[in-house]
From TrEMBL, chain A:
One of its GO terms (biological process) is pyruvate decarboxylation to acetyl-CoA. It comes from the Eukaryota. The pyruvate dehydrogenase complex catalyzes the overall conversion of pyruvate to acetyl-CoA and CO2. It catalyses: N(6)-[(R)-lipoyl]-L-lysyl-[protein] + pyruvate + H(+) = N(6)-[(R)-S(8)-acetyldihydrolipoyl]-L-lysyl-[protein] + CO2. This is Pyruvate dehydrogenase E1 component subunit beta. InterPro entries: PDHB_mito-type, THDP-binding, Transketo_C/PFOR_II, Transketolase-like_Pyr-bd, Transketolase_C. It is found in: Mitochondrion. One of its GO terms (cellular component) is mitochondrion. Residues 33-208 form the Transketolase-like pyrimidine-binding domain.
Amino acid sequence: MASIKPSSLLNLASRTLNRRQFSFTTPAAAKQMTVRDALNSALDEEMTRDDRVFIIGEEVAQYDGAYKVTRGLWKKYGDKRVIDTPITEMGFSGIAVGAAMAGLRPVCEYMTFNFAMQAIDQIINSAGKTFYMSAGKINCPIVFRGPNGAAAGVAAQHSQCYGAWYAHCPGLKVISPYNAEDCKGLLKAAIRDPDPVVFLENEILYGVQYPMSDQALAEDFVLPIGKAKVERPGKHITIVAHSRAVETSLLAANELSSKGIEAEVINLRSLRPLDFNTITASVAKTHHLISVEQGWPTAGIGAEILARIMETEAFFQLDQPAIRLTGVDTPMPYTKSLESAALPVPKDVVEAAKKLLKIK
Amino acid sequence: MKKLVYNINKALGLISNAKNNYATEAAFETKPFRLHNLEQGPGTNVTLTRDDALKFYNQMHTIRRMETSAGNLYKEKIIRGFCHLYSGQEAVAVGIKAALRPHDAVITAYRAHGWSHIMGVPPLGVLAELTGRQSGCARGKGGSMHMYTNNFYGGNGIVGAQVPLGVGLALAAKYKGTDGVAVALYGDGAANQGQVFEVYNMAKLWDLPCIFVCENNGYGMGTSAERAAANTAYYTRGDVIPGIWVDGMDVLAVREAARFAVEHCATGKGPVVMEAATYRYSGHSMSDPGTSYRTRDEIQEVRQTRDPITSFKEKIITANLVTAEELKTIDTEIRSVVDEATKKAKADKEIAMEELTADISSLPLEQYIRNISPFDPLPHKRIGEAVNFK
């Protein structure tokens, strides 16, 4: 048997991430959890903790969830608390928002956020703005959750990233978690939050296992919304990303490390509020910044980060202009090779970092 | 018909010929209701106590005066933006509210001033909200289309969006195990919205205690009902949901229909659709003169023959429940209340500049909100009570 090289491990990792529902087990299997299971346990725990929490959406109950995120919950909690809806996003979103206005704690699932466009008026105009319009009387404690962004082979209408759209709107809180720990802690926080939260998951990551600390496995594990995490400390360049792009950035950081470049990878975790302080502190150390995202470039998350850098003292910390790596500015093709070329991969991040650092 | 009513009243010993000897209760006959998917509907023989007669008259007249004042304020350019008046439709709000219990919820669209008042906002709270001042029920931050109070969820600006929200209120009532109902109001224009049909379906599927009320005033802005709907029998548009058509200009008929609907929903029989045939004297909003798509004769005709307040007044005086002098006193009182509120609404101050960035979130995660330029962020303030915070 050939010895395991770092590059083949890297290969295995990237192949793993492109396969749905493949669990990458390690010897410490007891302390690993898939993103799916992390979400499921967050929902389960919060439904036990607070009677007002209920789930509403398509296939969430008897089908166990289109992506099995709500598996077992209907069996445990019944019809009242896990509600299957007809395929009527605008209608059931409005119902969920109304229920939240009346004091319940709904978790409204979209099979993907592409379908939430049908309901976007209820998300933004009803849920997002009512607290302000009522001069602080009626708050809306609702969570809108589901897979966001590109999956694999699902083509243009099923692959859009809505992070920038929702992050644009005051009145909403927007979370874009990465790994299992993020998902558990942040979904619990979202459900407990008294304001509307848009929780953008990633379908590709549902089946991926990540290590979970004892703290993360505990029942009251809640992470703060609006705080980023330094996933990997470094000193030569800052790479900031959210959701699946964090994985891309970490893989790139490993590759860069073998070339003597230590990249600091920041996992945003939340898009609104966006933890700019963590980015600033990092840039003060590394003086180089790349933002990585899967969404389109125009008016995207990276555009927001770079604009803020321009406007603050952080600008003077840069030795090179900051850049963004984004999805290609095109609708998503079905053709496999074209699809692969439409989203940033570790190699893109490595090349960009080397360019900024003027390393061959 | 009149003779029948007279005989009933006589049999009940309620008619007195002595002056100043009021009847304490009277019976009336309403126009027949039209039913859809219902074996039995509300009865057309209704009774009215003297106290209720005075109350309904007071409520309807207050709304009328308040809306007239709003119209004037708008013409003086003291009210800005949109202003959709309820004049002519008073009987619908007053009649439905009379049938509701304190724990029932209501949500409507933007023609909301009358409803806001009937659900508890005093004339000052409405008028000052319209003039955008601090004594407005939303401190002036919401304006005409965004007034709220207990169990009243606005005041919503997007046509039709309030209907799914209303079904959500009904779901919450059922979920919490109360026998509360939710009233979701919409106009003949909104009645064609897709989301309304989506929630008709879910409300019926899940037996939710929602009373859908179509306030059919004949026009969706400048488009008559006939030009917008292939089926203008809005009370049938709920398909398998039972429906009732009611004369929305008769407050007693509306109350009777609403009582029927509340009983139906509160006893777990699922949703009901009520269509109240009503009329608005003003245009769609203050920007619409309201005469390009209908004749002045039509408006006059309704005013003279079907005005909800005038016809009610006649009824209760004839039935000897009240005297004309009594009503005159009430008129004077209401005029003074509304005039006082109008004066105050004009003179009152706006909220302080710091409230620009107040109450964006009930649990703000950032201390500062971005200002116009990056240089001087504004602190987020929390002022309102956030009823769903805990």
